[in-house]
Design a protein that fits this description.
This protein is mainly alpha-helical. The protein has two helices and no strands.
Length: 53
């Protein structure tokens, strides 16, 4: 077992996960700055529809 290889793999997985997470955050912030947001009531209605599927 190569412990250093395992550590390197884990480290790379963390970096990859953070990259995807940061892209999602950046996209959300961009949507907010453009005014692409839902009201609380709209969000509840959307959540209800998702819950039925």
């Amino acid at each position: 077992m190569d412990i250093q290889a395992e550590i390197n793999w884990i480290h790379q997985e963390i970096i990859d996960s953070n990259t995807v997470y940061n892209i999602d955050i950046n996209n959300a912030l961009e949507d907010i700055s453009k005014g692409n947001v839902y009201s609380e009531d709209q969000a509840r209605e959307i959540a209800k529809k998702w819950g039925r599927k």
